[in-house]
Amino acid sequence: MDEQRHKTAQPQGGEGKAPSHGTGHHEHHPELSWWRRYVFSTDHKVIGIQYMITSLLVALFGFGLMVVMRWQLSFPGKPVPVIGPLLTAVFGANLAPGGVMTPNLYNSFGAIHGTMMIFMAIVPALFAGFGNFVVPLQIGAPDMTFPRLNMASFWTFFVGVLIMLGSFLVPGGAAKSGWTSYPPLANVSDTGMGFEPILNGQTLWLIGMAFNITGSLLGSVNIIATIIQLRAPGLQWMRLPVFVWSELVTAFLLLLAFPPLESAAVMQLMDRLFGTSFFSPDGLVIGGRHWPVSGGGSALLWQHLFWFLGHPEVYVQILPTMGIVGEVIANNTRKPLWSYKIFVYSLLSIGFLSMVVWAHHMYMTGMGQSITTFFQIFTTIISIPSVLLGTVLLLSLWGGSIRLPVPMLFALAWLPMFGIGGLTGLPLGWTASDMVLHDTYYVIGHFHYMMAPASIMGLFAGIYYWFPKATGRMMNEFWGKVHFWMTIIFFNGVFFPMLIQGFAGVHRRWYDGGAGWQMAQPVLWLNQVMSVSAWILAIGQIPFIINFFWSIWRGKRVTSDNPWQANTLEWAAPTPPGHGNFTHPMAVYRGPYEYSVPGAAHDYLPQWVEEESKVPEPKLSSV
Amino acid sequence: MEIEIPYNVTARPDTGAYNAKIGIWLFLASEVMLFGGLFSAYIFLRMGATHWPHHLLNVPMGLFNTVVLITSSITMVMAWTALKMRQFQSYRRWLGATLVCGVLFLCVKSLEYKDKLHHYGVILNNGQEITGHLEMTPEEAMKSNVLRILPDAEDAGSFGYQLQSIFGRPAAAGEEKVLEIPKSDIQWWSNFTPRYSTFLATYFTMTGLHGLHIIGGLLVLGFFWGPGAKLYRTNPEHLANRVEVAGLFWHFVDLVWIFLFPTLYLL
User: What is the pTM of this model?
Assistant: First the structure.
């Protein structure tokens, strides 16, 4: 792309109709080598794209694991078709004899599916991918405040991904203790005969997570500092696009919630490598044998430290999508968000409250009535700002002249998915109902509605929305719609039956999908529904993958720097933006959602245009 | 090429800070949470413990290290002030003093570690715990059927005794008798490694992580003392900012020790 940009370099186009090319500061500098430009780049846009591509590949891999697991759940004990021999070849006859998934392999797949999807796919894609690419552009900055730290952040994360992937290849396979790595199980698994002292699944899980945490720490410091320091003149706090707000809150969550998990990981590493007992209680007996440690530790301690991250992490995954959906909805309804202020304050209160609800994952641990009461109250309270956010987005549709390009379809679909995900969470937030539903497929259905349909709807909305800015070409509309309908329908096909199965009491960790339990027989047929949906969902992603790559090189060229006729600053940059982003310094004159302002020449008033409009300086785009 | 980032050296008027200062404060916030996780773990484990050892650590040594670190914080500020006043030689001297203090801290700390690893504990079949020093080499102890151990003195937890013990075996030790314990009476014996008890696990983990921070700080400060100081010729203000930011980190590491010392040594 960059080559092409240089061949067609034109004089700077300014605000003209034809897209200007990002040649701004570029010509004054000596050419960077290919490695420095595309691989070890310090440019926030390249790093954003690196994050995005890596996490999309990880997401595909994590989804692949689940596609195989769904076979085992529907047809327990039967050899996996097509890729069965591959499983045996890669994991050996111990883990996959004759192409059949053993319980250990199933557990490995489950643990790594969860870990990679959450920590290495959704969060890096939404937070780091879009955050790196979009945030500096939206605030009119030339780059992130610390470009080299930014590069370090990506490569630390990347090493974490490689370690996690590589853990499949060590003797005994990858971690098997779930994505939560609860001790004492996680302390004792992958130890003893046939396991290496360091190169074993669970230890590598901890090391990989340490890399991942460090990378996200560097990234969040960078995002916050960038938003605080590099806003263009005139871009006051209440003129920030909602996506920037959501990234800011998310970055604070990552910054403050992740370190306790890092300290927990250090302690679990000590337990595994030096035989300490941070998480091993007194008198721990494993396999009929007294586990040779001093004891005195607490398994509950791990759960506290883990969920102190784990719950904010849920909001880390959903907040950036709220920002994306807010951008896309305001742009495609051609009117301001229903209330910008409520949106921003709700984001901030969710950010704060999400730090004090973690123990609602632990009602069944017997931690005591007063503690559960505290966490029930705050869990219920946090639904208020969440509902406010959904309401703002829903009411924004009212009275708009709605356009329906592909990003808007995904943004609209985000609303009901978020609704289902949120409402199904309420019964889990109260101890009385959680006792029945805890650890059933209902929980899986609930949190997947948040993390899969909702988060991924937001992810796709963002990809289709910002793709023209990144590449200068639009993604194909027809195949985008095919992708959308395949995704929305079969996502629900996968996850809605889980809620039903959960009510019937099907346990989330059963390796046979419930076949061995008499009471589960009436809902067993849903396993096939879910599995077939998952497989069609996989097929439904093929149009996206082809569309994505085809459009990079062959897609329809954009005819303007601002193809969606949007107001925020990223659309003032050349397409695609060159190193240093803007061809002239940015200044901001109004809020981000001045759509359909009465008396204006167009139905949009970009933030960067100083127009001698008849309207007085418009108030914030809020009620 | 690197892009010129605004407010790298000068402060942004409305926030009143240059970029790295915002960055380091954010980083320190996350560090607070990192050590906060460990401190909460300490509280959580101690609250649930049936038995928690006291006076196991050498208070005079810990106190000495506290003084060393506080001194290093002062010299750190002096180094930064010297740089702000553009007194380069003075800056090098003060920063050098900070480095010496950091290294001194690590030396004392490793002596303490060594001390712990040569200290033994025996748990008898009846549950009684005896701590002391082996009167035989560890290799002999592994092979032999009897452990010869010199138990700790009654007043081993006192300040004076611990102070003397730094410079050799205290005089009072003569009164103690070497015990010979047959291995058949012993449930478990080991030196004071992290796995010996929850207390030692927390001690080694927390001070170990703190020590890693000291080493990291020394590397950064060493860089600004040596090759990094060249920046003085082209942009002294930028160097002063860098030293200020590194200093903030150093003060934080100092502060962590101020919390670690009473938590582990005194309480």
Answer: 0.93
